[in-house]
Automatic annotation (TrEMBL):
GO terms for molecular function: metal ion binding; phosphatidylglycerophosphatase activity. It comes from Allochromatium palmeri. Its main location: membrane. One of its GO terms (cellular component) is plasma membrane. The lineage of its organism: Bacteria, Pseudomonadati, Pseudomonadota, Gammaproteobacteria, Chromatiales. It catalyses: a 1,2-diacyl-sn-glycero-3-phospho-(1'-sn-glycero-3'-phosphate) + H2O = a 1,2-diacyl-sn-glycero-3-phospho-(1'-sn-glycerol) + phosphate. InterPro entries: PgpA (IPR026037), PgpA-like_sf (IPR036681), YutG/PgpA (IPR007686). Its EC number is 3.1.3.27. Keywords: Cell inner membrane, Cell membrane, Hydrolase, Lipid degradation, Lipid metabolism, Magnesium, Membrane, Metal-binding, Phospholipid degradation, Phospholipid metabolism, Transmembrane, Transmembrane helix. This is Phosphatidylglycerophosphatase A. Lipid phosphatase which dephosphorylates phosphatidylglycerophosphate (PGP) to phosphatidylglycerol (PG). Its cofactor is Mg(2+).
Length: 173
């Protein structure tokens, strides 16, 4: 468990519950998981994805763009306040990366009996690319700082995972 310094701030992560940008950057608290915060952040994104999935594609994409812009602000400000490049507890980038991954999954597939398989496949593909960080994700992760650096490597991981899902859909159809 994180150590509390007062009623509002967690010492081990720097999370301050009084700050909206911390709630966003820390994925509504999912990034406070003591182990594998990125995985917990991605898991926390699934219910939000399921709420968004029935939307028409342009609206879904619009939300992803909005969440990306919010993430650029919240992650940058939070990382600057914490004095670190990309704290592992910041997981809003995982939310957006997973949403990007799932852009290619038609909502009609989710209503099928195997719909959860696509959610699981998206989760696993995104986590693979986010953890593995193949080129150019690794370069971005190492060289781009601030909110853009925090968000961009997960955006690229989401795009690569989405391509894997597209290939899988093509092969399985």
């Amino acid at each position: 468990m994180p150590k509390i310094t007062d009623s509002n701030t967690t010492r081990t992560t720097g999370f301050d519950r009084r700050k909206l940008h911390h709630w966003i950057a820390f994925g509504f608290g999912s990034g406070l998981a003591p182990k594998a915060p990125g995985t917990f952040g991605t898991l926390a994104a699934i219910p939000f994805y399921l709420l968004m999935s029935p939307l028409a594609w342009p609206y879904y994409l619009g939300l992803v763009v909005l969440f990306t812009a919010i993430g650029l602000w919240a992650c940058d400000l939070t990382a600057r306040e914490l004095g670190t490049k990309d704290p592992s507890a910041i997981v809003w980038d995982e939310f957006v990366g997973f949403f990007i991954t799932m852009l290619v999954v038609p909502s009609a597939l989710l209503t099928e009996s195997y719909g959860w398989a696509w959610v699981l496949a998206g989760f696993l593909a995104f986590r693979l690319f986010d953890i593995w960080k193949p080129w150019p994700i690794r370069v971005i992760d190492e060289q781009v700082e601030g909110g853009l650096g925090i968000m961009l490597d997960d955006i690229l991981a989401g795009i690569m995972a989405a391509l894997v899902l597209l290939i899988a859909m093509r092969v399985l159809s």
